[in-house]
Write a structure and sequence with these properties.
The complex is a heterodimer of chains A (334) and B (298). Chain A is of the alpha/beta class and 334 residues long. Chain A contains eleven helices and twelve strands. The longest helix of chain A has 18 residues. Chain B has twelve helices and no strands. The radius of gyration of chain B is 24 Å and the shape is elongated. Classes of the chains: A alpha/beta (334), B mainly alpha (298). At the A-B interface, helix 2, helix 3 and helix 6 of A face helix 9 and helix 10 of B.
Chain lengths: 334, 298
């Protein structure tokens, strides 16, 4: 399995009246072929902006100020944002699914018009071919009697159905990577599971890779092979899914795991992470998690932001001076 | 109980498209005054289209031996100072008024929409240049600007259309600029860009249909104003010139005989009033019927 996408030291800043917001500040990650990768973090930690940067869909006042995005051996950042090369990659090679299925479809166009659009654009299909393919895709994502529903408008579908349609649109041109930005957040729990299964089977069928961006650890635990944990615009822990769940090394990851409710343990109390994420315009020179970290040491308060360093486990890295594994009296629920 | 739930769901899912159209018709036709306006406009359009067949006389045929004739069976509304049949002039005047009205409204709407959407979509320097220029144009009242342009370009139907178009473009630009700004924030626009749509395609296929509705209303309401402005220019003598007939110039012609022979000014005046009134009512009713937030008002 070769490397498909490699992002190196990506920096995306937003210029605002309150100063520069470093939404993504030196994020590096990679995706291999046919891999499912999870990106986890709380709201405003830069997960979505990272993915939008890969697609170069950052609008003013945001700007990608540094880093490299290597896709199939080429640096995407060398392409013009609105240029033809980037347009052929968007939708053709890398597709994206958004959080809000209710608003992600154009209300005045039929499904046929919307799904066919990328087929005609990227695969140069004729109207009739595109329509045929669109019907097939609708069937694949589990819309019953797709021949009839293809000419319906989005408001005639429920939220879960619309997200299925979004998946059909995303997979239309057989992209190498499907980025799902909180694909299940707006849906109810039963639909969530179905859609995740659907996405998994679709990317397996099309031999694509999948990036799941979420704040729900439960979602990635089941599907992702590798996980990136993000906090305040930086990756704080990365590694194989089982390593991170069995053996979390960063205090933030521990906090996240402790705040997930579990059905199999009776009478347990959730342990929330105290405090709020830092204001991204006024980042401390020290570790961004320091004010909320229960394990902080003198070194944390005096030294600058730590670099990612490898720890035990294949590809397992953390951005922390403290190694949870060596600290006693840590409660990590397993 | 579960059966009822299923029922409502199927009903809601099967026929929303038709019910939307039904609702539109119900709100629209509930108003007697809207129906009246629609009838007047239909009559006017019919008259304008078939003017050559409807008018009993040539609108420029003089008959000095029969000038200032009172209404009679030969001349339903009498004749003017040059012995031209007033009724025929009114019929041809409808054609002029509607041609100027529709041409100006559609040309200015097309230009205004294009500029407004480009400014709204791209933002930055492009929007600053376009919008500040429009602000400058908007600084003048429409009729004053049209008067100035008509004075510079000279009279005649074509020049009047150009003058009125320039004067009414800024309104459309502003409207579509605002609509584009709000529509482009929707997720489906981002979703479209994420499948690699070009800017032109996104603007035309995705933003335009979603921003169209208020423009239809504005276009209809503006027709009245444009016809009013054209009449005003013609009244002042910088508008339509012979051989074209304009209601405005007819009012001006009859003005001198207002006390002795008022029908010369009153007849075209009533026509102007009726048409302008009808288009305004139609615009208002369309807005009420199309805008779900105003359901049931007026």
């Amino acid at each position: 399995m070769g490397r498909l996408l490699e992002v190196k030291d990506l920096k995306t800043y937003f210029k605002t009246d309150d100063g520069i917001v470093k939404a993504v500040d030196g994020v590096s990650f990679y995706i291999d072929e046919q891999e499912i990768v999870g990106v986890v973090g709380e709201s405003g930690c830069g997960k979505t902006v990272t993915q939008l940067s890969v697609m170069q869909l950052i609008n003013r006042p945001g700007r990608i100020v540094g880093g490299e995005i290597i896709f199939e051996g080429k640096n995407l950042l060398e392409y013009e944002q609105h240029g033809p090369e980037m347009r052929s990659i968007r939708g053709g090679k890398i597709a994206m699914i958004f959080q809000e299925p209710m608003t992600s479809l154009n209300p005045v166009l039929t499904l046929n018009q919307q799904i066919s659009e990328s087929l005609m654009l990227h695969l140069k299909m004729s109207k009739e071919e595109a329509r045929k393919r669109a019907i097939e895709l609708l069937g694949l994502v589990g819309i019953p009697s797709p021949e009839e529903r293809i000419d319906d408008y989005p408001h005639q579908f429920s939220g879960g159905m619309r997200q299925r349609v979004m998946i059909a649109m995303g997979m239309a041109c057989n992209p190498k990577i499907l980025i799902a930005d909180e694909p299940t957040t707006a849906l109810d729990v039963t639909t969530q599971a179905q859609l995740l299964e659907l996405m998994k089977s679709m990317v397996e069928q099309f031999k694509s890779s999948l990036v799941i961006v979420t704040h729900n650890l439960g979602v990635v635990a089941r599907y992702a092979q590798r996980i990136y944990i993000m906090y305040a615009g930086k990756v704080v822990e990365e590694g194989k899914c089982k390593d991170i769940f069995k053996n979390p090394r960063h205090p933030y990851t521990v906090g996240l795991l402790n705040s997930v409710p579990r059905l199999d343990v009776e009478g347990e109390r959730l342990i929330p992470i105290e405090g709020l994420p830092p204001n991204l315009t006024q980042m401390p020179p020290t570790c961004a998690f320091l004010p909320r970290c229960p394990y902080a040491t003198e070194q944390c308060r005096t030294q600058p932001m730590p670099e990612l360093r490898p720890v035990e486990g294949e590809g397992h890295k953390i951005r922390c001076y403290v190694d949870i594994a060596e600290v006693d009296n840590v409660t990590v629920k397993k | 109980m579960p059966e009822t739930v299923v029922n409502t769901e199927t009903v809601a899912e099967v026929q929303p498209r038709r019910s939307e159209w039904k609702r539109f018709r119900r709100v629209f036709f509930q108003r007697k005054v809207a129906i009246f306006a629609l009838i007047i406009i239909c009559i006017m359009i019919f008259t304008a289209v078939f003017a050559p067949w409807l008018a009993p006389y040539d609108p420029n045929e003089q008959n000095l031996s029969n000038s200032m004739a009172p209404p009679s069976r030969e001349h339903l509304l009498g004749t003017d100072r040059l012995g031209i049949d007033t009724f025929s002039r009114l019929i041809w005047g409808a054609r002029t008024a509607l041609i100027v009205g529709f041409a100006t409204a559609f040309i200015s709407a097309a230009i205004g929409t294009a500029l407004g959407m480009i400014a709204g979509y791209f933002g930055g320097v492009i929007s600053t240049v376009i919008m500040r220029f429009m602000d400058a144009l908007m600084g003048f009242p429409m009729i004053v600007l049209a008067l100035l342009l008509a004075g510079v370009l000279g009279s005649g139907m074509q020049n009047i259309i150009i003058a009125l178009t320039v004067a009414s473009v800024p309104g459309y630009v502003r409207l579509m600029y605002g609509m584009t700004l709000s529509v482009k924030e929707n997720d489906y626009i981002l979703a479209q860009r994420s499948i690699g749509s070009s800017s032109a395609r996104t603007i035309w296929k995705h933003i335009f249909p979603n921003a169209l509705q208020p423009m239809i209303v504005m276009l209809t309401s503006a027709l009245g104003g444009i016809i009013m402005a054209e009449s005003g220019l013609s009244f002042l003598g910088v508008g339509i010139t012979a051989p074209d007939v304009a209601w405005g110039s007819m009012v001006a012609d009859g003005f001198k005989y207002l006390q002795t022979y008022p029908i010369l000014s009153f007849a075209p005046g009533v026509c102007i009033m009726l048409v302008v009134f009808s288009f305004n009512i139609l615009g208002d009713s369309l807005r009420d019927a199309l805008d779900p937030r105003l359901r049931g008002t007026l």
